[in-house]
TrEMBL record, chain B:
Domain Helicase ATP-binding: from-to ranges: 71-225
Residue span(s) of domain Helicase C-terminal: 365-517
Taxonomic lineage from the root: Bacteria, Bacillati, Bacillota, Bacilli, Bacillales
Residue ranges, compositional bias (Basic and acidic residues): 554-568
Organism this protein belongs to: Croceifilum oryzae
Record keywords: ATP-binding, Helicase, Hydrolase, Nucleotide-binding
Protein name, as recorded: SNF2 family DNA or RNA helicase
Pfam families, alphabetized: Helicase_C, SNF2-rel_dom
UniProt-recorded Gene Ontology molecular function terms: ATP binding; helicase activity; hydrolase activity
Residue numbers spanned by region Disordered: 554-574
Amino acid sequence: MNDSMDQQQVRSFTERYLQYQQCQVIESAPSHIYTHLSIEADKDLLNRPMYWMYVERMGLQPNPSHQCFIFDAENPPADLKGEYVFFGCPRFTQLLDSAQKHGKFVRVYQDTGVFGMVSRQTKPYSPWLVINFFVSFVCDRKRDEIWSLGIDLQTGAIQEQFDDQIKNNKWLSRIPAKRYTEEANMSISEAVGELEYYLQDRLQNGELAWAEEAEERLQQELAQLDLYFPDDMSLSEEQLKSKQDRRRELVWQYHPRVETRLINAGLFYRDKVFRYQ
Amino acid sequence: MFSLPIHYDRSWLSQMEQNIEQDTGWSNWERFQLALEAAQAQVVPAFDSILSLQQIYGFEPLRHQIDVTRQVIHEMRGRAILADEVGLGKTIEAGLILKEYIIRGLVKKALILVPSSLVLQWTRELNQKFQIPAVAQKKAWMWDKYDIIVASMDTAKRDPHREFVLNSEYDLLIVDEAHKLKNRRTKNWQFINEVKKKFCLLLTATPVQNEMEELFNLVTLLKPGQLGRESQFNSEFVASKRKAKNEEQLRDEISRVLIRNRRRDGDLNLTKRIVHTIPINLTPEERDLYEGVTQFVRSRFQNGAGDLKSMLSLLVLQKEVCSSRDAVFHTLFKLFKRGEAGNESISPEVAHLVELLRKVKTSSKVEEAVNIIQQIPDKFIVFTEYRATQEMLIRALQQQGISAVPYRGGFNRNKKDWMMELFQKRAQVMVATEAGGEGINLQFCSHIINFDMPWNPMRVEQRIGRVHRLGQKKDVNIYNFSTSGTIEEQIIWLLHEKIQLFESVIGELETILEKLESEESLEQSLMKIALTSEDPHQIRNRLHSLSDQFHQKKDEVVRTKQEQDERFYGSTTS
């Protein structure tokens, strides 16, 4: 996660993206992939809103583009013109953004395999809300963490690193036969509130040295500004404005804070685990 | 205890609730996982790493450029004066810093203010080297439409643009050629002071040109109060207009906001320049033409005396005759059309020259060029000042089976790019009439032929600088074609032997020339010497004294610079 993706990872990510976005892969080699984009992918990757507006307004047959993505700059395909794709180039950034846009919300059911075939009984699922938060620690510098939190909608129990718990299971979009979901005891927005509160508490009790240092730098800079523009009546209107502007800039630059955004969220129906009381 | 503010965004919640209610709009497990992986790839895991280095492609920044990036972001907190000497890559440093901030999500909106002649070059570099989607500002509506804009300072500070700029908030403001901000009473300074900016980079190779006050003004623009109030600064640090006191403390203060790499610092790894003077012996016919043109030029000059315009075209003629017959013909023809319009017949003088011209069937210089190029199976760039020579040369080279492409200032961007690509991939030789301008970076080529020699040292240095620059891995061979017994030989003697223009970069060349040329340009001085000297001996004497003046100015400039360097930036290498 620390180092940026290498070319092999870039390629495999691109391949999966194309597959999930229903793009037709015409030619696939270690060095490149030649594809006929789906309409959605074309819209997200190729920056041609005018074309799509025109096609939709006029009711024309849409014609999404063919693209050749090259992953090995030393060995491009001989007969295809393409674009070198690497981590940090605008196209791949668009690809990452598009992937996030199309994986926002799920409602899925744990696949427990052959159970339904052999049992006569119906079996319950317990409902969980999962939120993946992108958490940024911001001052004049910045770093990020991903917090994957899950909350049991019946008991309110919260678990961290939920992505690790669910990634090795199989998840289905439709509820299998002979399964039913148990009722939640809280609303989605209540659950979101619980998770936000939990995260806030964890961060507030986490490592804060960076924020304290930033706050200290801010205070030093503000003090320096006060020395430069002593707050007496002698400041001209112009100087006063300069001082206020500069003060705003300093807060903007240094003020330590946490900014979060949603990566994605889902309702996960997990196989109900019966514990010994 | 410190209370950490946390912002949550809940704009997504209604969408999810709607999905639940209507049972539509769901993604699936695979896409959900891919989205999470995409986000993981975008995580910036540490405060103090430099990620931009892994996300550029096609060039490798030098160590000092990486150091500057790190220092500006992590120590100077994004407000700094980048004051490297010319040629060390301030643009690269600024690009790396911008890229790093963009990757970290700390900069979304950026404004880059540069001299208007550099707007396109900056835009291209940011796009090509750094994949930063910068656009060149052309119309007023563009200000609000694009996040990363390159514009000229002169445009930006004028209406209607001024309002757009002052009403925006820029996460990063970059000002190139920032020595134009040394005076607090100017519109430039006040404008930059008013722009709302979070981070700010000021780029200049000469943060102090004359007075200490300039430095104060520059630093105050960046961080008011860093050097105290003006009165404090004056009493603490200024002994007289140009003299500092408490130098150590001053240096310390300055080093918090200013970074200056000098050529002797660090490992720039510039390769060597190997200079060859190639004497060219004219054929009798060429010699006759040379003498004829020289006679013509002198007599015209003595008769016409003083008219600068005709003096210039005479000078061109004098230089061209050292380049090629074709170039002379071209100018003679123009001169004839202008001067002799209305006259039925050609003046006997001109007719005589045309006669001499006809007799010249071969070019000694071309033969030598072919000879050298055939001996060395490597890329060559051949510079000439004249288009007629350029065309003739390309024809002559092709006749010998040597592939050659042209390059000149008049080509549009696409054609320039295409010619560069052809040269790099297919042709052995590029014949260029222009050395300055954007985009000609020829590090893959290490042989330069100066087919004829500009009389302006800056133009000579620009030529060499296209090839001998950061990124050049081989020693650079420079072949100066010098026709024996002509003014060209004398000029090359001056530039090579006396000024030592070729062997190494004279970092202060521009400043020295500015001082030397306070009355008239060096080119004009040379022209006068060429036209008014009695004989070659006198030419040599006068060139000698010109070179003495050059060295005197050079010493002055170097001394001032050393003093300033020691005073403001410390003399120790970093």
